[in-house]
Amino acid sequence: MGSSSDVPALRRGLAVLRLLAGRPGPVSAASVARELNLPRSTTYHLLSELTEAGFATHFPEEKRYGLGVAAFELGSAYLRHDPLERLARPLLRKLADRMEKVAHLGVLHGAEALYLVREQPRQPQSIVSDVGVRLPAHLTASGRAMLAHLPPAQVRALLPSVASFVDRTGRGPHNLPALRRLLTLERRQGWSVEDGFVTAGFASVAAPVFDHGERPIAAITLTFRHVCDTPCGQTWPDLAKEVHKAAEELTLRIGGHAASG
Protein backbone atom coordinates (compact mmCIF):
# COMPACT_ATOMS: atom_id res chain seq x y z
CA MET A 1 0.00 0.00 0.00
CA GLY A 2 1.27 3.48 -0.82
CA SER A 3 1.62 6.13 1.84
CA SER A 4 -0.11 9.51 1.97
CA SER A 5 3.17 11.05 0.80
CA ASP A 6 2.62 9.36 -2.57
CA VAL A 7 -0.51 11.44 -3.24
CA PRO A 8 1.20 14.74 -4.16
CA ALA A 9 3.47 12.88 -6.57
CA LEU A 10 0.44 11.21 -8.14
CA ARG A 11 -1.27 14.55 -8.53
CA ARG A 12 1.79 16.05 -10.18
CA GLY A 13 2.04 13.08 -12.52
CA LEU A 14 -1.61 13.47 -13.51
CA ALA A 15 -1.07 17.18 -14.07
CA VAL A 16 1.77 16.36 -16.47
CA LEU A 17 -0.45 13.83 -18.26
CA ARG A 18 -3.26 16.38 -18.62
CA LEU A 19 -0.84 18.94 -19.99
CA LEU A 20 0.45 16.51 -22.61
CA ALA A 21 -3.12 15.61 -23.54
CA GLY A 22 -4.07 19.26 -23.96
CA ARG A 23 -1.31 20.13 -26.43
CA PRO A 24 -1.56 19.66 -30.21
CA GLY A 25 1.93 18.13 -30.32
CA PRO A 26 4.92 17.08 -28.18
CA VAL A 27 6.33 19.59 -25.68
CA SER A 28 9.71 20.03 -24.01
CA ALA A 29 10.39 19.17 -20.39
CA ALA A 30 11.27 22.81 -19.81
CA SER A 31 7.81 23.86 -21.01
CA VAL A 32 6.16 21.31 -18.73
CA ALA A 33 8.17 22.53 -15.74
CA ARG A 34 7.38 26.16 -16.49
CA GLU A 35 3.65 25.72 -17.07
CA LEU A 36 3.15 23.52 -13.99
CA ASN A 37 5.59 25.47 -11.82
CA LEU A 38 7.61 22.32 -11.04
CA PRO A 39 11.34 21.93 -10.37
CA ARG A 40 13.09 20.67 -13.49
CA SER A 41 14.46 17.64 -11.66
CA THR A 42 10.95 16.69 -10.54
CA THR A 43 9.62 17.21 -14.06
CA TYR A 44 12.24 14.92 -15.60
CA HIS A 45 11.56 12.28 -12.95
CA LEU A 46 7.80 12.39 -13.60
CA LEU A 47 8.26 12.25 -17.38
CA SER A 48 10.66 9.32 -16.99
CA GLU A 49 8.13 7.40 -14.87
CA LEU A 50 5.28 8.16 -17.28
CA THR A 51 7.43 7.09 -20.23
CA GLU A 52 8.42 3.82 -18.54
CA ALA A 53 4.75 3.08 -17.83
CA GLY A 54 3.81 3.83 -21.46
CA PHE A 55 1.71 6.93 -20.72
CA ALA A 56 4.28 9.28 -22.27
CA THR A 57 6.62 8.98 -25.25
CA HIS A 58 10.04 10.62 -25.50
CA PHE A 59 11.16 11.96 -28.87
CA PRO A 60 14.94 12.22 -28.37
CA GLU A 61 15.72 14.01 -31.64
CA GLU A 62 13.19 16.70 -30.80
CA LYS A 63 13.90 16.69 -27.04
CA ARG A 64 10.17 16.64 -26.46
CA TYR A 65 7.49 14.47 -24.86
CA GLY A 66 4.03 13.42 -26.01
CA LEU A 67 1.30 10.96 -25.02
CA GLY A 68 2.15 7.25 -25.04
CA VAL A 69 0.24 4.18 -26.18
CA ALA A 70 -1.01 3.44 -22.67
CA ALA A 71 -2.86 6.77 -22.67
CA PHE A 72 -4.60 5.77 -25.90
CA GLU A 73 -5.49 2.37 -24.44
CA LEU A 74 -6.92 4.01 -21.34
CA GLY A 75 -8.99 6.41 -23.45
CA SER A 76 -10.27 3.54 -25.59
CA ALA A 77 -11.26 1.57 -22.48
CA TYR A 78 -13.10 4.63 -21.17
CA LEU A 79 -15.12 4.89 -24.37
CA ARG A 80 -15.99 1.18 -24.31
CA HIS A 81 -17.68 1.70 -20.96
CA ASP A 82 -20.07 4.28 -22.45
CA PRO A 83 -19.62 6.52 -19.39
CA LEU A 84 -21.50 9.50 -20.78
CA GLU A 85 -24.62 7.48 -21.55
CA ARG A 86 -24.47 5.58 -18.23
CA LEU A 87 -24.12 8.75 -16.19
CA ALA A 88 -26.77 10.62 -18.18
CA ARG A 89 -29.50 7.97 -18.30
CA PRO A 90 -30.76 8.25 -14.69
CA LEU A 91 -30.77 12.04 -14.94
CA LEU A 92 -32.79 11.89 -18.17
CA ARG A 93 -35.17 9.37 -16.63
CA LYS A 94 -35.93 11.71 -13.72
CA LEU A 95 -36.18 14.74 -16.02
CA ALA A 96 -38.61 13.02 -18.39
CA ASP A 97 -40.83 11.81 -15.53
CA ARG A 98 -40.79 15.14 -13.71
CA MET A 99 -41.49 17.31 -16.76
CA GLU A 100 -43.63 14.74 -18.64
CA LYS A 101 -41.67 15.30 -21.84
CA VAL A 102 -39.13 13.35 -23.90
CA ALA A 103 -35.55 13.81 -22.69
CA HIS A 104 -32.48 13.29 -24.88
CA LEU A 105 -28.73 13.25 -24.67
CA GLY A 106 -27.06 14.40 -27.89
CA VAL A 107 -23.51 15.01 -29.10
CA LEU A 108 -22.05 16.76 -32.12
CA HIS A 109 -21.04 14.52 -35.00
CA GLY A 110 -19.58 16.88 -37.56
CA ALA A 111 -22.34 19.32 -38.53
CA GLU A 112 -25.03 17.02 -37.13
CA ALA A 113 -26.52 16.33 -33.72
CA LEU A 114 -26.36 12.61 -32.90
CA TYR A 115 -28.76 11.30 -30.25
CA LEU A 116 -27.24 8.76 -27.83
CA VAL A 117 -29.97 8.35 -25.20
CA ARG A 118 -33.73 8.92 -25.19
CA GLU A 119 -36.00 8.61 -22.16
CA GLN A 120 -39.76 8.72 -22.58
CA PRO A 121 -42.19 10.11 -20.00
CA ARG A 122 -44.81 7.82 -18.50
CA GLN A 123 -47.10 8.75 -21.40
CA PRO A 124 -44.87 7.91 -24.43
CA GLN A 125 -44.66 10.39 -27.28
CA SER A 126 -43.70 9.76 -30.89
CA ILE A 127 -40.98 12.11 -32.17
CA VAL A 128 -38.30 11.96 -34.86
CA SER A 129 -35.22 12.25 -32.61
CA ASP A 130 -34.67 8.62 -31.62
CA VAL A 131 -31.39 7.02 -30.50
CA GLY A 132 -28.93 6.91 -33.40
CA VAL A 133 -30.77 9.57 -35.40
CA ARG A 134 -28.66 12.41 -36.80
CA LEU A 135 -30.18 15.81 -37.47
CA PRO A 136 -28.72 19.11 -38.75
CA ALA A 137 -27.01 20.70 -35.74
CA HIS A 138 -27.96 24.26 -36.72
CA LEU A 139 -31.67 23.37 -36.59
CA THR A 140 -31.73 21.39 -33.34
CA ALA A 141 -31.70 22.94 -29.88
CA SER A 142 -29.15 20.34 -28.76
CA GLY A 143 -26.85 21.07 -31.67
CA ARG A 144 -26.93 24.82 -31.16
CA ALA A 145 -26.48 24.46 -27.40
CA MET A 146 -23.07 22.97 -28.24
CA LEU A 147 -22.26 25.15 -31.27
CA ALA A 148 -22.84 28.26 -29.14
CA HIS A 149 -19.77 27.41 -27.06
CA LEU A 150 -17.41 26.52 -29.91
CA PRO A 151 -14.89 28.97 -31.39
CA PRO A 152 -16.36 30.90 -34.35
CA ALA A 153 -13.73 29.42 -36.69
CA GLN A 154 -14.83 25.90 -35.76
CA VAL A 155 -18.49 26.74 -36.42
CA ARG A 156 -17.51 28.18 -39.80
CA ALA A 157 -15.51 25.03 -40.61
CA LEU A 158 -18.53 22.84 -39.81
CA LEU A 159 -20.92 24.98 -41.88
CA PRO A 160 -18.76 26.63 -44.55
CA SER A 161 -21.41 27.62 -47.12
CA VAL A 162 -25.10 28.26 -47.66
CA ALA A 163 -25.35 24.72 -49.05
CA SER A 164 -24.43 23.43 -45.56
CA PHE A 165 -27.68 24.82 -44.12
CA VAL A 166 -30.25 22.07 -44.62
CA ASP A 167 -33.86 23.23 -44.46
CA ARG A 168 -36.61 20.95 -43.10
CA THR A 169 -39.64 23.12 -42.36
CA GLY A 170 -38.73 26.60 -43.61
CA ARG A 171 -37.80 27.71 -40.10
CA GLY A 172 -34.39 28.19 -38.54
CA PRO A 173 -31.14 29.87 -39.64
CA HIS A 174 -30.39 29.59 -43.36
CA ASN A 175 -26.88 31.02 -43.45
CA LEU A 176 -23.85 31.60 -41.23
CA PRO A 177 -24.61 35.22 -40.23
CA ALA A 178 -28.12 34.23 -39.10
CA LEU A 179 -26.72 31.27 -37.19
CA ARG A 180 -24.08 33.42 -35.49
CA ARG A 181 -26.73 35.89 -34.31
CA LEU A 182 -28.82 33.06 -32.89
CA LEU A 183 -25.82 31.41 -31.19
CA THR A 184 -24.80 34.70 -29.58
CA LEU A 185 -28.33 35.17 -28.22
CA GLU A 186 -28.56 31.61 -26.92
CA ARG A 187 -25.09 31.65 -25.37
CA ARG A 188 -26.08 34.75 -23.37
CA GLN A 189 -29.46 33.24 -22.56
CA GLY A 190 -27.89 30.01 -21.29
CA TRP A 191 -30.03 27.59 -23.29
CA SER A 192 -31.18 26.92 -26.86
CA VAL A 193 -34.67 26.62 -28.30
CA GLU A 194 -36.11 25.27 -31.52
CA ASP A 195 -39.74 25.78 -32.44
CA GLY A 196 -40.71 23.63 -35.40
CA PHE A 197 -37.25 23.87 -37.00
CA VAL A 198 -36.93 20.07 -37.23
CA THR A 199 -40.50 18.78 -37.19
CA ALA A 200 -43.63 20.90 -37.47
CA GLY A 201 -45.65 20.80 -34.28
CA PHE A 202 -42.76 20.05 -31.93
CA ALA A 203 -40.38 22.25 -29.95
CA SER A 204 -37.24 21.59 -27.88
CA VAL A 205 -35.21 23.23 -25.13
CA ALA A 206 -31.55 22.24 -24.61
CA ALA A 207 -28.59 23.08 -22.37
CA PRO A 208 -24.92 22.13 -22.88
CA VAL A 209 -22.77 19.68 -20.90
CA PHE A 210 -19.09 20.59 -20.53
CA ASP A 211 -15.90 18.56 -20.12
CA HIS A 212 -12.95 19.35 -17.82
CA GLY A 213 -11.63 21.86 -20.37
CA GLU A 214 -14.93 23.80 -20.46
CA ARG A 215 -15.64 22.42 -23.94
CA PRO A 216 -19.22 21.45 -24.90
CA ILE A 217 -19.21 17.66 -25.00
CA ALA A 218 -22.98 16.98 -25.14
CA ALA A 219 -26.39 18.54 -24.60
CA ILE A 220 -29.51 17.55 -22.69
CA THR A 221 -32.83 18.30 -24.38
CA LEU A 222 -36.54 18.23 -23.62
CA THR A 223 -38.79 17.81 -26.66
CA PHE A 224 -42.55 18.36 -26.56
CA ARG A 225 -45.64 19.01 -28.63
CA HIS A 226 -46.09 22.67 -29.55
CA VAL A 227 -48.14 24.02 -32.45
CA CYS A 228 -47.98 27.59 -33.76
CA ASP A 229 -48.49 28.87 -37.30
CA THR A 230 -45.46 31.17 -37.13
CA PRO A 231 -42.50 31.16 -34.71
CA CYS A 232 -43.98 32.69 -31.55
CA GLY A 233 -40.72 33.56 -29.83
CA GLN A 234 -41.29 31.46 -26.74
CA THR A 235 -38.15 30.42 -24.85
CA TRP A 236 -39.74 28.27 -22.10
CA PRO A 237 -37.54 29.49 -19.20
CA ASP A 238 -39.23 27.19 -16.67
CA LEU A 239 -38.37 24.13 -18.77
CA ALA A 240 -34.92 25.52 -19.47
CA LYS A 241 -34.25 25.81 -15.73
CA GLU A 242 -34.85 22.08 -15.26
CA VAL A 243 -32.84 21.13 -18.35
CA HIS A 244 -29.99 23.34 -17.18
CA LYS A 245 -29.98 21.64 -13.75
CA ALA A 246 -29.69 18.23 -15.39
CA ALA A 247 -26.90 19.45 -17.69
CA GLU A 248 -25.00 20.92 -14.74
CA GLU A 249 -25.35 17.66 -12.82
CA LEU A 250 -24.01 15.65 -15.74
CA THR A 251 -21.14 18.14 -16.12
CA LEU A 252 -20.24 17.51 -12.47
CA ARG A 253 -20.59 13.74 -12.85
CA ILE A 254 -18.06 13.60 -15.67
CA GLY A 255 -15.64 15.92 -13.85
CA GLY A 256 -16.35 18.84 -16.14
CA HIS A 257 -16.51 22.59 -15.64
CA ALA A 258 -19.13 24.93 -17.05
CA ALA A 259 -17.89 27.54 -19.49
CA SER A 260 -16.98 30.74 -17.70
CA GLY A 261 -18.14 33.20 -20.34
TrEMBL record:
Sequence ranges assigned to domain HTH iclR-type in this UniProt record: 7-69
Annotated InterPro entries: GAF-like_dom_sf, HTH_MetabolicPath_Reg, Tscrpt_reg_IclR_C, Tscrpt_reg_IclR_N, WH-like_DNA-bd_sf, WH_DNA-bd_sf
Organism this protein belongs to: Lentzea kristufekii
Record has RNA-binding as a keyword: no
Keywords attached to this entry: DNA-binding, Transcription, Transcription regulation
Domain IclR-ED: 70-256
PANTHER family referenced in this protein's UniProt entry, alphabetically: HELIX-TURN-HELIX TRANSCRIPTIONAL REGULATOR, ICLR FAMILY, HTH-TYPE TRANSCRIPTIONAL REPRESSOR ALLR
PROSITE patterns the record matches: HTH_ICLR, ICLR_ED
Parts forming coiled coils: none
Protein name: IclR family transcriptional regulator
